[in-house]
Amino acid sequence: METTNYGFSKIVALPFAEAVTAVKAALAKEGFGQLTEIDVQAKLKEKVGMDMEPYLILGMCNPKLAYQALQIETEIGLLLPCNVIVYEKEGSVHVAAQKPSLMSQVVQKEALKAVADEAEKGLLAALEAVA
After folding, report:
1. How are strands ordered across the β-sheet holding 92-98?
2. What is the pTM of this model?
3. Per-residue pLDDT reduced to its tens digit, 1-54
4. How many whole angstroms separate alpha carbon 66 and alpha carbon 1?
5. Beta bridge partners of 112
6. pLDDT digits (tens, 9 = 90+) for 50-97
7. pLDDT, average across residues 108-129
8. CB 35 within 8 Å of CB 59
9. Given CB 3.0 to 4.6 Å as the disulfide criterion, which of 13, 23, 35, 55 pairs with 87?
10. Of the candidates 83, 22, 29, 91, the residue with the CA atom closest to the CA atom of residue 56
11. C-alpha distance from residue 37 to each of 43, 96, 98 (Å)
12. For every residue of the chain, which 3-state class applies, written as one string?
């Protein structure tokens, strides 16, 4: 697993469509539901006529944790949902998730840190589960 200051990523040994299915299932197992799905490849083709490899943005939410975060900071919705991406680059399929801990770095409230840490733990477990 590769870690940056804003996310976690890994290359998986699955075709793109299977990786998407596996990611959604792993996230569901960790309590995350899908709010949005953006097919960036299709949108860029439609809007600007550009071709690119498959790239999908999944807006994922753990309702219990989202509720807790919203009780702590009403405008935390600006940083929600947790985005997870699945994309293909040069024949390899990548899966990546944003770090929920970014929320607690931006909104410096101790109670929010615990919520973000729990969300991060779930996202990491889901990424680890995808082969």
Report:
1. 2-3, 7-12, 92-98, 82-89, 55-61, 33-39
2. 0.94
3. 999 999 999 999 999 999 999 999 999 999 999 999 999 999 999 999 999 999
4. 25
5. none
6. 999 999 999 999 999 999 999 999 999 999 999 999 999 999 999 999
7. 95
8. yes
9. 55
10. 83
11. 11, 14, 15
12. CEECCCEEEEEECCCHHHHHHHHHHHHHHCCCEEEEEEEHHHHHHHHHCCCCCCEEEEEEECHHHHHHHHHHCHHHHHHCCEEEEEEEECCEEEEEEECCHHHHHHCCCHHHHHHHHHHHHHHHHHHHHCC
CATH of domain 2-129: 3.30.310.70
Q: Which of 1, 25, 14 is nearest to 124 (CA)?
A: 1
CA 36 – CA 126 distance, rounded (Å): 18
- The 10 Å Cβ neighbour count of residue 66 is 20
Name which of 40, 81, 41 is nearest 61 in CA terms. Answer: 81
Dist CA 99 CA 83 (whole Å): 9
The first and second tokens of residue 125, run together, are 């477990």
Q: How far apart are CA 17 and CA 95, in angstroms?
A: 12
